[in-house]
């Protein structure tokens, strides 16, 4: 997910209650787009699964592509099945991140 207009911040994005199956290397990716930021992101109660013979999706959620686009992220109640072994990757250092109710990204 990314802000669609590179000149404007995106206020809030919610990814909730989806099944993401057999979809590339990651189920959800947070990415930059110019100077635009994603002010608040909620990714909750989704199921990430890859049961294909040549499973590619091994990570459920990637929170940063290196652009530091997100400012506040909440990840809660997601499930990983099949080849998806890494629930969350690439935690941005500059964002306020909560994963299943625990602060992350401030280590």
Structure description:
The protein has 107 residues and is mainly beta. It is built from no helices and eleven strands. It has a five-stranded mixed beta sheet, with no helix packed on it. A three-stranded parallel beta sheet has the order 2-5-8, with no helix packed on it. A hairpin with a 2-residue loop joins strand 10 and strand 11.
Features:
107 residues, mainly beta, five-stranded mixed beta sheet, 0% helix
Short description:
This protein has 107 residues and is mainly β. The protein is 0% helix and 46% strand.
Report the helical percentage.
under 10%
Indicate the overall shape.
globular
Count of extended strands: 11
Number of helices: 0
**Largest beta-sheet details:** 5 strands, mixed
Please write out the topology.
Layout: E1 10-16, E2 19-21, E3 26-29, E4 38-44, E5 47-50, E6 59-62, E7 72-76, E8 79-82, E9 86-89, E10 96-99, E11 102-104
Parallel strand pairs: 1-4, 2-5, 3-6, 4-7, 5-8, 6-9, 7-10
Antiparallel strand pairs: 10-11
């Amino acid at each position: 997910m990314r802000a669609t207009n590179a000149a404007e911040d995106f206020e809030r994005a919610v990814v909730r209650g989806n099944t993401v199956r057999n979809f590339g290397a990651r189920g959800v990716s947070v990415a930059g787009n110019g100077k635009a930021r994603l002010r608040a992101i909620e990714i909750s109660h989704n199921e990430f699964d890859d049961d294909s013979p040549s499973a590619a999706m091994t990570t459920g959620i990637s929170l940063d592509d290196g652009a530091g686009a997100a400012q506040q992220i909440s990840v809660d109640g997601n499930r990983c099945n099949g080849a998806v072994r890494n629930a969350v990757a690439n935690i941005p250092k500059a964002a306020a991140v909560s994963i299943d109710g625990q602060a992350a990204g401030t280590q």
